[in-house]
Amino acid sequence: MSFGDPNNPYGPPEGQPSGYPSQGQPGYGYPQGAPQQPGYGYPQAPPVQQSPYGGYPGGPMVMPGGVKSARVMLFVIAGLQVLGAILIAFSAVAVSAAKNNAELKDDVRFQQLADYSAGALWGVTVAVLAWGVLAIWLGVKCANGGNGVRITAMVFGILTAILGIYPFIVIGLAHTVLAILIAVFVGKSDGEAWFSRPKY
Length: 200
Description:
By secondary structure, the protein is mainly alpha-helical. It has helices at about 65-100, 110-140, 145-165, 175-185, 190-195.
């Protein structure tokens, strides 16, 4: 079978040379009438969004509002931690000064309490400052940190909320509210997308 055979059903119609159909007359097998649309018989795809980053999807995203809020709350907690550390340090200094007071020097029970209290207060001061430094570090890392920073911020929020409830219920109320909000905002789906985004 060749295209030159007039009885060939796959050949061009009579009067038309083999090869591509001419512009004026549609070829064999093409629909008559309206010109063929692109993607004939298939639904049209939506237009492609042009990315300002050379066509690579997932370019830099804008930090979600919840993550921005969590970041600000981390810095607020860090500020509260610094204020608390200053107050605890003043208390430790006051206990040490009272320990040298002539009137209380003879009181053995106060001296034992003062020795224990001053050391414990200095230890608490260091722990409070360390917790504040961790809050600052997490706040800074929210801008470009990965999923590990997200998980650490959630654990930080949960532990801070628990510590704000149990030992420090009156002064820890602000910490508890802020910490719960941090854990919720960082744990939401937009927070997960922010921390799991590709870093370029």
